[in-house]
Amino acid sequence: MSDAPISLAEARAYDKKRWLWPMGFGIVMLVAAATLAGWLSGLTVLMFAGPITVYGIVPLLDFTIGKDSSNPPERVLAALEDDPFYRYSTYIYVLVQLVLFVGVCAIVGTQPLTIGQWLGFVSTIGMLSGISINTAHELGHKNTVIESWLAKIALAPVAYGHFYVEHNFGHHSRVATPEDPASARMGESFWRFLPRTVLGSARSAWHIEKRRLARKGLSTWSPRNEVLQSWGMTAVLWIGMVAAFGIQLLPFLIVQAVLGASLLEAVNYCEHYGLLRQKDANGRYQRCRPEHSWNNDHIVTNIFLFHLQRHSDHHAHPTRRYQSLRHFDEAPELPTGYAGMIVLAYVPWLWYRVMDPRVANHYGGDIRRANLDPRHRDRLLARYPPPLTSP
User: What is the pTM of this model?
Assistant: First the structure.
């Protein structure tokens, strides 16, 4: 293999999905168009384009279109990383989402709506707000001022700004351990995971900022507290929307935020379910490795979520941009994309039937090496008894 520097044009040729990435915000625009068409035409079912797309169309397209597990060669990664085309797709996404959010707020706050139309708008914006958290996730890992602020802006509508702090400095250090509020335990339903991760993540973000500011000799209530900055942005945005379009908008803002945050946490639930980093002889957790994240290579969800499903490489290289994330053959694989898996997550008995055998198989039948929910440990060990000789 040649060690000669590769040009940007040559590097671009290796990315087979290059011209599909703008569909990240393109899908948002299509969903918005369908929703508005439904409102204007009176065809209310179209106004539910958000949940229909997330829970129906994307999983179906994943099933019909299939996977792409190809990786760019190592020698082109640096050139792909420097290509501004990929950054601009995420920047435009944030702008599109913000314009759409304000536009729908204007309609909901000022126009007469039926209950069905209101539910259509709030469910669709809730889904899109939740997906925009993933764009904030991609931007929030980058070390540029503009991307850090775009991440916080993307989190403002859904009132989840503390995610910026907790994910980068909490989840990434404690991933796949019982101490991580964002890593689901085997036997833990999504509905039990949801309040644990929401409250635990907010608490974790606050303590992370408190410690960081204390090291700098600053008060927790300093204007430099990034959790307060993010929550302040939500307050300004929401107060601005209510001032512009009326107090009747407030329930809409709250419900779409709840829906958006719960969608994010459904994805979090899938990403590390039951996986556990073992401890070394010194009692410290081993480094995060490919086997500590569930992955998937279905194309449509990967376009929709900027390669989030190549989650093992993301944890190995958090600042790596989405276009350069790689597939690992040794990483555990979900049976379908995250979009389909979150539908399963909402139905615990179905989720357990699909995922618990996979967790057991991942650990060679010895689920004592898995991240078990303490409340269900005995039941799980009875169902999946450890082998007489551990592997």
Answer: 0.94
How far apart (Å, rounded) are the C-alpha atoms in residues 312 and 292? 7
Report the C-alpha gap between 241 and 342 in whole angstroms: 31
381 backbone dihedrals φ, ψ, rounded to 5°: -70, -30
Give the whole-angstrom CA distance, residue 274 versus residue 214: 35
Residue 272 in tokens: 């590390």
User: Is the separation of the CB atoms in 262 and 130 below 8 Å?
Assistant: yes
Cα–Cα dist 326/88, whole Å:
21
Distance between CA atoms of 251 and 265, rounded to whole angstroms?
21
- Between the alpha carbon of residue 93 and those of residues 117, 194, 350, the distances in Å are 25, 27, 34
Radius of gyration of the chain (CA): 21
Report the C-alpha gap between 58 and 64 in whole angstroms. 10
Q: Is 106 exposed, middle or buried (0-12, 13-18, 19+ CB in 10 A)?
A: middle
Helices of type H across 162-292:
163-166, 172-174, 190-215, 226-245, 250-271
Per-residue pLDDT for the chain (391 aa), expressed as one digit of tens each? 455 667 777 888 888 888 999 998 999 999 999 999 999 999 999 999 999 999 999 999 999 999 999 998 888 888 888 899 999 999 999 999 999 999 999 999 999 999 999 999 999 999 999 999 999 999 999 989 999 999 999 999 999 999 999 999 999 999 999 999 999 999 999 999 999 999 999 999 999 999 999 999 999 999 999 999 999 999 999 999 999 999 999 999 999 999 999 999 999 999 999 999 999 989 999 999 999 999 999 999 999 999 999 999 999 999 999 999 999 998 999 999 999 999 999 999 999 999 999 999 999 999 999 999 999 999 999 999 998 765 5
Evaluate whether 284 touches 277 at the Cβ level (below 8 Å): no
Nearest-10 crossing angle of helices 115-140, 84-110: 150
Q: How many CB atoms lie within 10 A of CB 146?
A: 11
- Calpha distance 173→221 (Å, rounded): 25
Map residue 113 onto helix, strand or coil.
Answer: coil
